[in-house]
Amino acid sequence: MKFFVDTAEVDDIRELQATGLLDGVTTNPSLIAKSGRDFKQVIAEICEIVDGPVSAEVAALDVEGMIAEGEHLAKIASNVTIKIPVTPAGLKACKHFSNNGIKTNVTLCFSANQALLAAKVGATYISPFIGRLDDINLSGMDLIADIRTIYDNYAFTTEILAASIRTLNHVSDAALSGADVATIPPAIIHKMYGHPLTDKGLEGFVKDWASTGQSIL
Ligand code: G3P
């Protein structure tokens, strides 16, 4: 499963890029607003830090506006992926981008039918929002599994990008459900390393190695 980081905070992205784990970045208007920075400047900076896909979301709601904005954003860097909402206008714009070799990330997906529509217009990625479905007592993970089944049934090449990830279980469950990508908040990625038994075991190894009085070099 590919790891994208879900943030527009450049320092967090740079820190994670150094781990060698990062395959891409997703942003959205809320994350850009939270960064307090100029949208196009921060996207350009992120594209300099990571080689993988960097999702930049259009703001327009009409087809013509989405296409104009998306083509403008795509000029920032070759690894910019255009994020569009799963609306009738968004999917028409997605079809245009797909026909013109611009990678797309269809976002705000909450149903298997929406994912089916996105695949049929050639979306590069579909972003089902797990956390927001869980928030209303539905199962975000069941949606991931349903989309996986549908895409495999028809050999759709659209990649399932599990989004709105809030917990460690969301990451491992998305992998178990067959998501191609998980876009993960920085804090969750950092938590993935930890386990109390690892800490305890390492402490024991360090103590016992020290008792040998030996050194490796
Ligand atoms: O990539 C989508 C993600 O940023 C949304 O997360 O927690 O606002 O549902 P959340």
Short description:
With 217 residues, this protein is an alpha/beta fold. 52% of the residues lie in helices and 17% in strands.
Model description:
With 217 residues, this protein is an alpha/beta fold. Helices cover 52% and strands 17% of the residues. The protein is built from eleven helices and eight strands. The chain has an eight-stranded parallel barrel, surrounded by seven helices. The chain is globular, with a radius of gyration of 20 Å. The chain binds SN-glycerol-3-phosphate. Residues 6, 26, 28, 31, 129, 131-132, 163-164, 166, 183 line the site of SN-glycerol-3-phosphate (G3P). SN-glycerol-3-phosphate (G3P) binds at residues 6, 26, 28, 31, 129, 131-132, 163-164, 166, 183.
